[in-house]
Amino acid sequence: MNGSDLESTHRTIERVARESYGRLVAYLSSNTRDVASAEDALSNALVAALTTWPRDGVPQNPEAWLLTAARHSFIDHVRHLQVAEASEPTLLLLREQSQEMTLSPEFPDERLKLLFVCAHPAIDPAMHTPLMLQTVLGMDAVRIAHAFLISPTTMGQRLVRAKTKIRESGIQFEVPLERELPQRLEAVLEAIYAAFGIGWDDMAGVDQRGRDLAEEAVWLGRVLLRLMPGEAEVRGLLALMLHCEARRSARRGLAGRYVPLLEQNSQQWSLPLIKEAESHLAEASSRGRVGRFQLEAAIQSVHAERARSGRTEWTAIVLFYEQLIRISPTLGTRTGFAAAVGEANGPEAGLAVLDGIDPDDVSAYQPYWAVRAHLLQRLGKTSEAVDAFDRAIGLAEDPAVRQFLLQRRG
Amino acid sequence: MQFALLIFESPEAFAARNNNDENDPYLGAWRAYHKALVEAGIFVGGNPLQAPETATTVRLKAGKRHVQDGPFADAKEQLGGFTILELPSLDAALDWAARCPAASIGSVEVRPVSPEYMRRVTG
C-alpha cells in the first residue's frame, strides 16, 4: 500500500471512529452497564483496525467490523473477570448478542440511553458533561481536563469513579418514562449546553480548546435531535448554539481584539447558520411547548435580526427574558435581563435589576460586574464605574476581555 | 483550606515593572485581580518578589558555605511572587489561578499549603 492509500485508510478509521464511537460504546454497554470495559474493548478494536485495514483494505462495513472486534475483546475481558467474579449472566448475554450480530450487520442506536445515563441524577452533575464527551464522542481525559480546568489525573479518576457508579448502582440504560422525561431531558440538554458554554463563555475564538468543545457540543445537539426529533427543547438548544456559532468570526477583531455583541459587524455573521437556527426555532415553537432553551434561542434570534434590520429590538429581548426568568432564574439569566433592561429602559432601570441580586452570589461572577460597570459608566458615575470595572477585570480569564475592559475603564 | 499560587513570570514581565507607567495594562490587571481576591474574601496574604537577578542562593556542602548569585534554578520563567488563598477546593483554586494576569503570559503553579507538616514543625 502506498503513502496516499495509507493516509486515506487512516482518515477512514478516524471518520468511522468519530461517527461510530458513541454508537458502539452505547450498544456494547447497554446490557452490561459496563461503560469502561466497552470503551477499552473499542479502543482495542481501533488499534486492530490500524494494523489490519492498511494491510487487507477497509472492510465493506467498517462499523460492523469494529463491533465484532470490540465484542471479541469485550468477551475476553469478561471471561477474564469471570474467574474472579463469576458473571455468568453477562457472559451468556454477550454470547446471545454475538449470535444475533452474525445475522444482521445493523444494530440499534443506543446513544440516547447512554446520554440519559451520563446525565443521570445519581451521577454528580459536574461529571455529566465530561462523561458525555468521553463516552459518546471518545474524547480523552486529558483534553476534557484542559477544557474543565481540572488536573488530568483528577479528571481521569473522576471519570473512572462515575463509570464505576454506573456499573454498580443499577443505573438502567433506558429512555425515561413520560412523567420523568422533562426533568431528565433537561439534565441532558444542560450537559450539552455546558460543553458549548465552555467554548462560548471564554469567548476566545482564538483558543483552540474552546472552539473544539463548541463544535463537539453542536455535534451532540445534532445527534440528540436525530434521536428525539419531536422534542421542542432539543431543537431550542440546537437553535441557540447555532445562533452563537454564527457569530464566531465576528467576535474577534484585529490582533485578537475582543468585540462585544453590540459592536460586531453583522455582515460577518454566518447567514446559513442563522437560517438553520431560525428553522429549528420555528419548528420548535410550532409545537407549543415553550422552554428555557427556546427562549434563550429566541433572544439570540432577536440579536440576529440586526443583520437584516440594522437595529436591535430591546423591548422584545426584555419580554423573552421576563419569561425566561420565570422558568430559570439563574444568575446568568438575571444578569442578561439587567443588561437588556438597561438598553430598553435606560441604565437606572438596569441597575435596579442588578441591585435585586444578592451580593453574596456575585462576588466571583464576572458578567455581573461587567454589566454593572457599563451601566454606571452610562450614568456618568465614574468612580463607582471604575470600581465595578476593576471587579470585572480581576475576574476575567480571557486576556482579550481583560484588555477590552481596561480600555473601557479608562 | 489554603492554597499557594506561585506566580512564574518571563524576563520581559520583570523588566516591564521598571517602566513606572501607572497605566501599564499588566499592572492594571494585577490591581483589579487583587481587588477581586480581597472582595471575594479569600485573600490570606502574599507578595510580589523582586527580579530573579536580586536573588542570592545559599547552601552548605560538606560544611562549606556556597553562595551563588541568582536564583536556585536557571529557567526562563522565574518565581515572581506568591499569593495565599483560602478556598474550599482545588477546583476553586484553579479557577482563581486561571484569572491571574500572569496565567496568560507566564504560568501559575497551584499548591495546597501543608498545615499537617506545619504542626509537626511547630510541635
Explain this structure.
The complex is a heterodimer of chains A (410) and B (123). Helices cover 72% and strands 0% of the residues of chain A. Chain A contains 19 helices and no strands. Chain A is elongated and about 75 Å long. In chain A, 42% of the residues are buried. In chain B, the strands form 2 sheets. A 4-stranded antiparallel sheet of chain B has the order 2-5-1-6. In chain B, strands 3-4 form a two-stranded antiparallel ribbon. In chain B, strand 3 (56-61) and strand 4 (64-69) form a beta hairpin. Chain B has helices at residues 11-16, 25-39, 90-99, 115-122; strands spanning 2-9, 43-48, 56-61, 64-69, 78-86, 107-112. Chain B is an alpha+beta fold and 123 residues long. Chain B is built from 4 helices and 6 strands. The interface between A and B is medium-sized, with 20 and 23 residues.
Please sum up the structure shown.
The complex is a heterodimer of chains A (410) and B (123). Chain A has 410 residues and is mainly α. Chain A has helices at 3-29, 35-56, 62-85, 88-103, 111-118, 125-135, 141-148, 152-168, 181-201, 208-227, 232-245, 271-285, 292-309, 314-327, 331-345, 347-355, 366-378, 382-395, 399-409.
Number of strands of chain A: 0
Number of helices of chain A: 19
Give the SSE order of chain B as H and E letters: EHHEEEEHEH
Radius of gyration of chain A (CA) equals: 24 Å
Helix percentage of chain A = over 70%
Average of the residue pLDDT scores of chain A: 89
Distance between the termini of chain A: 64 Å
Helix content of chain B: 25-40%
Low-pLDDT ranges of chain B: none
Percent strand of chain A equals under 5%
Most residues in contact, chain pair and counts: A-B, 20 and 23 residues
